């Protein structure tokens, strides 16, 4: 049967016009996402913040709006409205800051609800300090100047020499390295030498701003000479088997749980924390003769708004109450006989 134009062409034309946006969207999706568009398929608890608000010392939290992976500021803690103590601390022990701040506030109740702290890598924190404390995250910009800076002892001493920090360096604990792996260790990593094997994907701290990278490089040399260090931090970076992180203390466990990497060197304390919170993370110990120990220290920032509070915090970090908290994550007190 032959259809007349009035009942065949018009509906067809209308259908094509309606289909154009759909076709355009499909083409765009294929172009941008290679035809693999799908809803996020992950467990919300895998993404930080991992302590469910416990790491926020603010008293009045108002509307709580956190969407993991989308709207999330896990390295900024507290209330910026008239803080009495601002701490910039290298993110190596962000997980210990909640109990540390609580213990400090217990000894000094006048600071309760008035502590603000950041837990970014030390190189990034120093960059923020150099621009007057101003930082932009997404669409938000704010300015906060630290009273005290805590990081590796060498970086603290350099800050004092450069005039960024003032007073003396106050050392308090040490930390060792480990190889973080997914639970079950599917790549069968037994030591640092295995990180150089072809096909083993890695998540490693970026030497550009993470001081731990230099200590890891030293351990790689101890385990396999310059060749192993070059394989991990040069060859594998170029061929895509090593992913360099921006905030190693959070990204490495994320990459392991997401299947992006099979291993990554971190501080032992980080692996202990990940296991404590129930994440599918384990670690492979590094022998003492291949390991590298870091000494953590703190010092007051030059020109701080609250220098006395900054000094109180630095001194608190080596108090019995603070050391007990640190020891729960595998840190060790600085030995009086250890050269600083």
TrEMBL record:
InterPro entries: ModA/WtpA. The keyword S-adenosyl-L-methionine does not apply. It comes from the Bacteria. Pfam families: SBP_bac_11. Coiled coil: none annotated. The keyword Signal applies. Residues 1-26 form the signal peptide. Keywords: Signal. GO terms for molecular function: molybdate ion binding. GO terms for biological process: molybdate ion transport. This is ABC-type molybdate transport system, periplasmic component. It comes from Thiomonas bhubaneswarensis.
